[in-house]
Design brief:
Elements (H helix, E strand, L loop, with lengths): L4 H14 L11 E3 L1 E17 L2 E5 L4 E6 L6 E2 L4 E5 L2 H36 L5 H33 L2 E3 L4 E6 L6 E2 L4 E6 L3 E9 L3 H5 L3 E5 L5 E3 L2 E8 L5 E9 L10 E17 L4 E3 L2 E7 L5 E5 L1 E5 L4 E6 L6 E3 L2 H17 L1
Antiparallel strand pairs: 1-22, 2-11, 2-16, 3-10, 4-6, 4-9, 5-8, 6-7, 8-10, 11-15, 12-13, 12-16, 14-15, 16-21, 17-18, 18-19, 18-22, 20-21
């Protein structure tokens, strides 16, 4: 069977295309290991909590007639959560209005009598004692009117206490009373919290507290890796007797993040500047539990070097705690470096 020269050329071209691409050290992009000033960081566990946490108690006695919101319900500020029986407070309000009306009439009568006696007294037709008596009666009527007004305000307030309202917008976390039970003054009714204002509490060991007090910045990091700016830091001036740790509060706005009270986060305190070695994060290879980079020597030799990785920085670099020295050349593309290292090893074994 005769094979044409064109077919042979086609097969040779195909084999060349299937052959592995040979790389050379000069073609490999590298960067030197750089020394950089970065802040020293303390990373501590923190717990998210609500700034506003409230338990509403009964102000007057009364039977629970309606429970309008239950656990996990969202309540707007000022909405009625629980309604108590209002028959007695409503009757007391009616009585207070009647007493105010009577006191007003008594005052009008005392003022008219005072004006009459005053006119006669000016004509020297009555004694000074009669004038003093009329004036005292007028003042007593004015005092009774003021007392009646105060009684009316108190009665209105007592009636308003039968409508238990939310002091701010939030969610109900716990209900302490059932429908039909009688609430007494001071009894807990419902508990709730607001998700609009959150903070993180951190227990700082006493050996770190001085550095934390002087921290330049503090940030919160969620489990998803999201960073949240801290608006205010409060360090408690005393240690907990049992744990000997200091409580630190980090305030932030919670309406823009998906955090809820009780969640764990990381509190990051930037303490002071330190010099570290850094390499591009994309040059690092992770295989199982091994972290390494490809290092190119001056003679063109390539090696797979284990390193101990530190903190990943926002500029695309990663701290290297051990395994590298300053100005060593690291391959930027670990895939291409891996191919070159394999070619070098194959060439060395064939020699």
């Amino acid at each position: 069977m005769k094979i044409s020269s064109g077919f042979i050329s086609y097969c040779v071209a195909a084999l060349l295309m299937l052959a592995p691409l040979r790389l050379f050290p000069a073609e490999l992009e590298t960067v030197p290991v750089m020394a950089k000033q970065t802040p020293r960081v303390y990373r501590l566990d923190g717990v998210v909590e609500a700034v506003r946490q409230t338990t509403i108690s009964a102000q007057i006695s009364g039977q629970v007639e309606a429970i309008l919101f239950d656990v996990d319900d969202y309540v707007e500020k000022g909405e009625v959560v629980i309604r108590l029986n209002d028959k007695q407070p409503a009757a007391r309000l009616k009585q207070a209005r009647a007493e105010l009306k009577e006191a007003g009439a008594r005052l009008k009568e005392a003022e008219d009598e005072f004006e009459r006696v005053k006119g006669v007294y000016e004509k020297k037709a009555v004694s000074e004692k009669a004038m003093d008596t009329a004036e005292a009666a007028k003042k007593a009527a004015q005092a009774k009117l003021e007392a009646a007004r105060a009684g009316l305000e108190s009665a209105q307030e007592q009636l308003e206490y039968t409508q238990v309202r939310a002091p701010y917008s939030g969610i109900v976390t716990e209900r302490h009373i059932e429908l039909g039970e009688t609430a007494q003054p001071g009894n807990k009714l419902v508990s709730g919290l607001s998700l609009e204002h959150l903070r993180v509490t951190v227990d700082v060991p006493q050996k770190m507290i001085n550095q934390v007090r002087q921290a330049e910045t503090a940030t919160i990091e969620t489990m998803d890796g999201e960073s949240i700016a801290v608006s205010n830091t409060t360090v408690f001036p005393y240690a907990e007797p049992g744990s000997h740790t200091f409580r630190v509060r980090l305030d932030f706005k919670g309406d823009s993040v998906r955090l809820f009270p009780g969640m764990f986060v990381k509190a990051i305190f930037e303490i002071e500047q330190k010099q570290v070695l850094v390499v591009p994060t994309r040059s690092i290879v992770t295989r199982s539990e091994v972290t390494a980079v490809y290092v190119l020597s001056a003679d063109g030799g390539l090696s797979f070097r284990y390193i101990r990785e530190g903190r990943r920085l926002d500029d695309g670099n990663t701290e290297v705690l051990a395994g590298l020295q300053s100005n060593e050349q690291v391959a930027v593309d670990p895939v291409a470096a891996g191919v070159l290292l394999k070619q070098q090893r194959s060439s060395a074994s064939s020699d």
